[in-house]
Design a protein that fits this description.
Blueprint lengths: L23 H15 L3 H28 L1 H9 L8 H14 L4 H26 L16 H13 L5 H28 L16 H13 L6 H19 L17 H17 L3 H30 L8
Helix pairs in contact: 1-2, 1-4, 1-10, 1-11, 2-3, 2-4, 4-5, 4-6, 5-6, 6-7, 6-8, 7-8, 8-9, 8-10, 10-11
């Protein structure tokens, strides 16, 4: 992941084609870190946090270098109707890292959270402005990846409230909830009434799980940890979308690996944490057990994705022109 040199046998520079969706991997690793912490596996959580920081630093360094050397390539990604939605994955990664850092260093977490929140607010407005601007989008351009900007907003309160930014967290939560509902209608319309998602976008169906699962965790932070009716509705919605995504799992068979497969990781992590939290508050041993099973599945998913990603990098299958 750290070396993308120009070589004689390649007609292009792989750095020029380093994709912004790569930051979805940081979201998945951050989710694993937080899930391990929620399950009480502190040593493993610290190790996962170290890996998350290392990967984020590598990806951020490479993408910054790409922006400096090939600004036209970054501009092309910004104009891309699908890749555009992945730019907020950078700011979401910062918010998730801040959440994971809070038990280690609250001051450091606060600085990272402020940076991530500012970037998330700016990117949300920029993406929304792009969506409703003068450039026409077609229904085929819509995918569950369009949820990413909305999910990022509901991530903010998970750490923001404890770090001393409750009012700002309410604003982010409100924005995320509103646009989740709007985008849910658009995405379901595309999935039901139009052509199926192309193969490499099929894994993004798992993203449907993330908004209600993360919103559940954010709502608990905002309402003082009370498992009220709205919290149960959000958790129930996450389970419904889990069931819906599971019915489409067979479509993954035989699909070649792509970075979009990382879309499986963060939603599973968010639901795992939500289930563990629900089990602790209910209290419900059954939910706690389900959460621990979810954690085992999450560990397997992330391990497999890491292996497949490293293998794809070694074979030169990533950072290729489309």
């Amino acid at each position: 992941m750290t070396a993308l040199p120009e070589t004689a046998d390649l007609p292009h520079n792989r750095l020029e084609h380093f994709p912004v969706p790569f930051f979805a991997a940081v979201m998945g690793l951050s989710g694993l870190t937080l899930a391990l912490h929620a399950a009480g596996a502190e040593t493993a959580s610290i190790g996962a946090l170290a890996l998350t920081l290392l990967v984020f630093a590598a990806l951020a360094g490479l993408y910054t270098l790409k922006a400096l050397r090939y600004p036209q390539a970054v501009a092309a990604e910004w104009r891309h109707p699908v890749k555009l939605a992945f730019f907020p994955a950078i700011s979401i990664s910062l918010l998730l890292i801040a959440t994971a850092l809070r038990p280690v260093s609250e001051e450091l977490a606060r600085g990272v959270w402020l940076t991530g929140a500012a970037a998330q607010g700016a990117l949300t407005l920029a993406v929304l402005s792009n969506w409703i601007g003068h450039r026409p989008f077609q229904t085929m351009h819509i995918s569950p990846a369009w949820f990413i900007p909305a999910v990022g907003n509901v991530v903010a309160p998970v750490a923001g409230v404890a770090l001393g930014f409750p009012e700002t967290s309410w604003v982010f939560f409100s924005a995320g909830l509103i646009f989740w509902l709007v985008l849910l209608v658009l995405v379901m319309n595309r999935l039901v009434f139009h052509d199926p998602l192309p193969g490499r976008m099929v894994p993004t169906l798992a993203i449907l799980i993330a908004p209600p699962a993360v919103a559940f965790l954010a709502w608990l932070q905002l309402n003082g940890g009370v498992l009220d009716a709205f919290a149960r509705i959000l958790f129930g919605a996450a389970l419904v979308f889990l069931g819906l995504a599971a019915t489409q799992a067979a479509k993954l068979r035989g699909l070649p690996f792509a970075l979009s497969w990382w879309a499986l990781s963060f939603p599973v992590a968010a639901l795992t944490i939500a289930t563990l939290r629900f089990g602790a508050l209910a209290p419900s041993p059954g939910h706690v057990l389900a959460g621990r099973i979810g954690l085992a599945v999450l560990c397997a998913i992330v391990a497999l994705l890491l292996v497949r990603t490293l293998r794809a990098i070694a074979r030169g299958e990533i950072c290729q022109p489309e």
